[in-house]
Amino acid sequence: MTAAALTHTAGPTGPTVALRHLLTMARRSLLRMVRYPSLTVLLVVTPIILLLLFVYVFGGAIGAGVAPGVVPGAAGRAAYLDYITPAVLVMTAASIAQSTAISVAMDMTGGVVTRLRAMPVASVAVLGGHVVGALVQTLLASGAVLGVAALLGFRPAADLVGWVALLGFFTLLAVMLTWISVAMGAAAGSVETASNTPMVLLLLPFLSSGFVPVETMPAAVRVFAEHQPFTPVIETIRGLLVGQPAPTSTTIAAVAWCVGLSVLGWWWARRSYRRQRA
Amino acid sequence: MSTTSPAAIEITGLRKAYARQLVLDGLDLTVPLGTVTALLGANGAGKTTTVSILSTLVPADAGSATVLGHDVRSQPDAVRRLIGLTGQLSAVDPLLTAQENLRLMADLRLLPRSRRRHRVDELLETFGLAAARRTPTQALSGGMRRKLDLAMTLVGDPRVVFLDEPTTGLDPRARRDLWQQVRELVSDGTTVLLTTQYLEEADQLADTVAVLHGGRLVAHDTPAGLKTAHDAGSLDDVFLALTDPEAPSTDQHEEIA
Ligand SMILES: Nc1ncnc2c1ncn2[C@@H]1O[C@H](COP(=O)(O)OP(=O)(O)OP(=O)(O)O)[C@@H](O)[C@H]1O
Ligand SMILES: [Mg+2]
Q1: How many domains does chain B have?
Q2: Does the CA dihedral A157-A158-A163-A168 come out positive or negative?
Q3: A12: exposed, middle or buried (C-beta count within 10 Å: 0-12, 13-18, 19+)?
Q4: CA-nearest residue of chain B to A31?
Q5: Host domain of residue B174
Q6: If you placed Cys at A77, which of A35, A59, A122, A214 could pair as Cys (CB 3.0 to 4.6 Å)?
Q7: Three-state DSSP state, A231
Q8: How far is the CA of A64 from the CAs of A30, A79, A152, A243, B250, in angstroms?
Q9: How large is the ipTM?
Q10: Could you read off the pLDDT of B104-131 as tens digits, one per residue?
Q11: Can you list the residues of chain A whose pLDDT is less than 50?
Q12: Which chain A residues have a beta carbon less than 8 Å from that of B19?
């Protein structure tokens, strides 16, 4: 070694530093949202339009189909609003996940990640910064969507414990969707791909019990719908909102999907980050 | 080459292949402390690959590389604490202002709060970015953004700085400004390895010029020494003579079967 005398003092390392780096990167994510407010507005307005469209265009007719005994028209519309609000909340989180994938891909394909990888900054801090930013955005946007649903006549029946459970579960869901989309963005290789792959997160809720009961679907679709993650997730949220918790097995399935897919997303994201084409 | 000054960068027998293509084929290079070395080579010669290996981004297939005595493979974090990289692509966040971009680097480099403000202001001043400190960087000109890119690299006072085509797209004045920054950096003892396609830049800035061709160095000397050896008036002529694709100096640069 020709330059042993120059060995640098190691400085602080370990979890404290990773946490500081994570907070720094989360702060950057939030700052980017403040600087680009039109995107955040779009991400709030889109699910609200979806809600209005489904309730006021389709709701009168479909509502009679989702709630036994309800007649088409105004009663159907009210029943349908109750039925799809959970699915629209999930769509809100999924569309923010999609925009997160795009941000991550921009970092990966531009020079930002190249620079960060040449610095003593852990991958979990860089990727986690996007996750924390998206989480804040998701909670704010979902609050707005829930507010609009309330204005339209949605009356959640959750008690305090129910609201706390709902907040906890919804946060877990958002963490899962965000880690998956961060991974999709990190693996994409281009911004275009990163805007396409998360479409699956926006399509799957339509193939679940989110918009119509699975019993109304053809057999093959129904089997898929019953076994994909969004059905137990939406049933859990719906149960908490209406104050009649979903069956324990459904809740366990929902939590297991969220935890499992979060870990998978984190692992996949980290792997893609480390293999970035420099 | 001087043998008295210790090496900042030491590369021996470095090999790297991508998929079917051999890029580096036993590269040897020593960069002495406190000097500027310009790495030249045709497009695709492996300049960025070399910089990526040295800055711990990409693992080499064989050979070794150390930066200030730390092996890039086995001690990446030690290397990362000592280096700064201005990559070929811009690493500036376009949505943040110049000041916020620098602040981000200061936070990641864990500068103490008191030092952070001072360092950010100092760099804004040095790089002529003070007036643009609150402008989102997407509204800055390409030259200003490149200066900010370099300023961000310097926030943590790196001892070794890699500049991959730092002045591509800059006008002649901006380019000279940036050269001046590099000279000042070196006068403070920093070591610089830069790649460039502007041979005048190498001529002006570099203590030594290394030419990469066929996966190895085909020349490594002072700019004046190269011109004399090749009886050429400019480095352009030297470059053209050394990197003729019809007459590769080594026969190794072929596709791996
Ligand atoms: N991640 C990668 N996967 C496959 N091939 C790669 C990868 N990175 C570089 N290459 C190939 O390796 C060769 C060397 O690339 P490199 O970027 O190091 O060249 P360069 O000298 O920097 O060129 P330029 O002057 O164009 O910047 C090129 O042929 C390039 O296509
Ligand atoms: Mg290059």
Answers
A1: 1
A2: negative
A3: exposed
A4: B96
A5: 7-84+156-242
A6: A59
A7: helix
A8: 42, 8, 18, 22, 79
A9: 0.90
A10: 999 999 999 889 999 999 999 999 999 9
A11: 1-10
A12: none
Print burial letters for B87-120: b (CB count within 10 Å at least 16), e (below 16): bbbbbbbbbbbbbbbbbbbbbbbbbeeeebeebb
pLDDT, tens digit only, all 257 positions of chain B: 444 457 999 999 999 999 889 999 999 999 999 999 999 999 999 999 999 999 999 999 999 999 999 999 999 999 999 999 999 999 999 999 999 999 999 999 999 988 999 999 999 999 999 999 999 999 998 889 999 999 999 999 999 999 999 998 888 888 898 999 999 999 999 999 999 999 899 999 999 999 999 999 999 999 888 888 888 788 888 888 888 876 554 444 444 43
Of A27, A111, A278, the CB nearest to B58: A278
| Residue pLDDT, tens place only, A154-211 | 999 999 999 999 999 999 999 999 999 999 999 998 999 999 999 999 999 999 999 9
Q: Which of B86, B96, B108 sits opposite A35 (nearest CB)?
A: B96
Ligand 1 pocket test, candidate residues B15, B16, B18, most atoms within 8 A of CB: B18
pTM: 0.90
Q: Which atom of ligand 1 is nearest to the CA of B165?
A: 27
Contacts of A5 (CB under 8 A, 6+ apart): B6
> In this structure, which amino acid lies at residue A16?
T
Kindly list the residues from chain A whose CB atom is less than 8 angstroms away from the CB atom of residue B11: none
Q: Is residue B19 part of a domain?
A: yes
CATH number of B192's domain: 3.40.50.300
Q: What is the largest CA-CA distance in chain A?
A: 85
Range 86-125 of B in CB contact (< 8 A) with A: 86-93, 95-96, 100, 104, 107-110
Q: Is residue B94 part of a domain?
A: no
In a domain, B31, yes or no: yes
